[in-house]
Amino acid sequence: MSTTIDLGRTSLPLGGVTHVMGVINVSPDSKNTHTVAASLDEAVLMADRYRRWGASVIDLGGQSSHIDNPTIAEAEEISRVVPVIEALSNEGHLVAIDTWKPEVARASVEAGAVIVNDTGGLVDPEMRAFVAESGVATIAVYVEGANPHDVGEIDIREDKAQHTADQFRLLLDELEAAGIANVIVDPGIALNYRGDYEAYSRMQVQVIAESRHLRALGKPVLIPIPRKRDGHRLAVYVGLALEHEADIVRVHDVAMACDLVELFGRTP
Fold first, then answer.
1. Count of CB atoms within 10 A of residue 145's CB?
2. Sign of the CA dihedral 266, 218, 92, 49?
3. Which of 131, 145, 222, 231 could form a Cys-Cys staple with 151, CB 3.0–4.6 A?
C-alpha cells in the first residue's frame, strides 16, 4: 500500500496514524442536527473548529443519505454545497463531497473538493468516467443497493468483513481497468438499512474488528463511525477502529474522535 493518500496538491501520511474526517451537513433534513450548518459562515466556523481539534478532512454533504429523507435534485444539491466548498477550500481545508450523483461530484471538484465520497459504491458509469477523467481521489462505499435511498434490509452475516472485502476486490479490478487507482475503501457500516437494529449494531462491531480483510486489499481503509443513540457506543466504535489501525475514521463527533486518536497515539 502507498505511504500517502494523494489529495490534489496535498498528501496525507499513512502508517501508524489515523486521520479524522469530520462531517458537516448543509442538508437541513439531516437527522444529525449537531453537524448541520445553517449558513456558509457557520460551515466555515464548524470546519475551523474541527481543524483545531485535529481533523484532517471535512466530509461535506448536501443530500441526507438517510432512507427516510427525500432525494433532492442534483441542481439543488449543487447549490447547497458548491459555495461552501469554495469557502472551505479558500481557508485551506481538504474537502470530500459526500454524494452518489455524478453532476454533484463534478461541480464539487471544480469548486475545490479533493475527494469524491461516492455513497453509490462507484458503480455508476458516469461517476466512474468523471473520476477517471479528473484523477480525483475517491472513496468507494460498500452499499447494498444502487444508493443509500435504494436499499432494503441489511444482509446480516457472520463473515461480513470478508464478504465485503471480496466484493471490493472485484470492484477494484474493474476500477483499475477503468484507470481509477486512487481509491479509499469504506465498508459502508454507517449507512441506514431496514431490519434488526441491534443485530446490525453487533455486525458493525464485527466488521471493524475484522477490518484486516479490508486492509489486505492494499488500499487505505476508512471506517465510518455509525451514529448511535448512546454516546458510549460511539466511543467503542471509534476505539475499536483505532485499535484495528483504520487509516481514516469518518465521524460526526469530532472532538471525541480526535481525543481518542491522541490517546491511542495515532495522531498524524
1. 14
2. negative
3. 145
Three-state SS for 56? coil
- Taken in order 134, 109, 28, 234, is the CA torsion positive or negative? positive
Terminal-to-terminal C-alpha distance of the chain? 17
Q: Which of 26, 28, 62 is nearest to 43 (CA)?
A: 26
Domain of 220?
Answer: 4-263
Q: State the CATH number of the domain containing residue 94.
A: 3.20.20.20
- Classify each residue of 64-96 as buried b or exposed e, where b means 16 or more C-beta atoms within 10 Å of its C-beta: bbbeebeebebeebbebbbebbbbbbeeebbbb
Predicted confidence band of residue 77 (pLDDT cuts 50, 70, 90): very high
| CB-CB contact of 121 with 144 (8 Å) | no
What would the pLDDT profile of 195-211 be if each residue is shown by its tens digit?
A: 899 999 999 999 999 99
**Closest C-alpha to 72, from 30, 118, 113, 22:** 30
pLDDT, one tens digit per residue, over 1-47 is 779 999 999 999 999 999 999 999 999 888 788 999 999 999 999 99
Q: How does DSSP classify residue 16?
A: S
What is the identity of the amino acid at 35? Answer: T
Cβ within 8 Å of residue 22, ≥6 positions away: 47, 50, 53, 55, 57, 58, 59, 251, 252, 254, 257
Cα 207 from Cα 213, distance rounded (Å): 9
**Domain total of the chain:** 1
268 in any annotated domain: no
